[in-house]
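Memo to structure team: turn this sequence into structure tokens by end of day. - J.P.
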Amino acid sequence: MEVSRIENLPPPPGIINSIKAGFDTIASHITAILLPLLLNLFMWLGPRLQMTTLFDSVKNEVVGIWQRGGVPAADIQRVLDFYESTIPNINLFWILRTLPIGISSLLLPHSASATPLGDPAIMQVNALNFPGWLFLLTLVGWIGGGLYFRSVAWVAAPAEERAVNSLNAVMQTILVSISTGIILFVIAMPLLLLLFLVIQLSAVLANLFVLFVSLGSMWVIVPIFFWPHGIFIKKQNFITSILSSIQLTRFTLPTSSLFVLTVFLLSFGLNFLWNIPPENSWMTLFGIFGHSFVTTGLLAGSFIYYRDMSIWLQAVIEKLRPNSMIKQA
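Reply from structure team:
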């Protein structure tokens, strides 16, 4: 009787079908890509916020500390060469792309390169306003991310499930983002310490340690990936939403981890395609539009997958519950 009941369970939602449904949804509601499109255009044609001046202001002091500490001159020069080739290419406006909830943006390879409108305006931070810029950009990223996720969930979910109000969406986004940062910090610090100790013992053991951590990381990545979905689909608070995400991961880890991996590979792999046109060519518009459409379609597909998988999981639990009660009796 139990085998028959299990065999009659409905099939779980398909990964490809969910992603396809996400693209179909965004194609029918193309305005959903407006926020990532605007952010990408700003990142491309707008000013750059750099910290070259800040770095130059402290470089001599840092070098002096290293020299007094006995750091070899060759190592100091190697670090300086790395920073001097990296710092000018960092655009602090990239902070607007917050995680795990944020507006998707395309990271152009050279932040100071020319655009079709000429050389971009360069803004510099200093030691006084640097913390203020970090706070402001992060806050704007959280607000924009909450509104973006809300708008995509609004078009991806059925009419009767729409939609968490804007203020609650922003507040829950901030809580999820802060909680995620704390969780990742608490998990990462002991792991990095263990990795450092294992490296001292053996490189082979270090590689095995990294392999096991990578395999086990899905138990962290998948719940965090679906953490916002309960907020924007089920109107849950950030605590109830993470509990729902953990339950989903517990019962559907193989399929859900494959879905997350597929979304990551599609998004990351296509970034190489979007970055092919030079930044001073108007052809970059095609890459920006493609990136905005694909990433929004993948986000919509994740909302559809989460909704359908939650419904399927509830149906499975309800269907198996009588058997559990009979066994207990």
